[in-house]
Amino acid sequence: MPVPRVPLKDLGFAILLLALIPSLILYSLGLHDGLIATLIYFQLVTIWIQAEISLRQQELAELQATPITVLHYSSSRGFLHAKPSEATKHIPLTVQN
What's the confidence (pLDDT) of residue 84? Predict the structure, then answer.
């Protein structure tokens, strides 16, 4: 199974969120206050990621509920084929995608 390729801008954004911003917080506030602020920052990033996942799951659930193919039929337009041993009724279908 091939490894998916990550675009460079997404990788840069992840490095910015997970390494550069916490480093700047630690550098600007010092070790004690910086650790508390960094933990709060990571909690906010976690909430953001969970919200994104929840929105994507909700969208996927809505897409599963909508039909992809719709079939319509009209029984008034059907016609009957009669053979000696069986009768077959043909009904035209309208397919929309």
Answer: 61
Phi, psi at 62, each rounded to 5°: -70, -40
3-state helix, strand, coil in the chain (%, to 5): 60, 15, 20
- In a domain, residue 31? The reply is yes
pTM higher than 0.85: no
Q: What is the C-alpha separation between 95 and 73, in angstroms, rounded?
A: 9
What is the total count of domains within the chain? 1
Give the start-end residues of each E strand in the chain. 70-73, 79-82, 87-90, 93-96
Owning domain of residue 30? 8-65
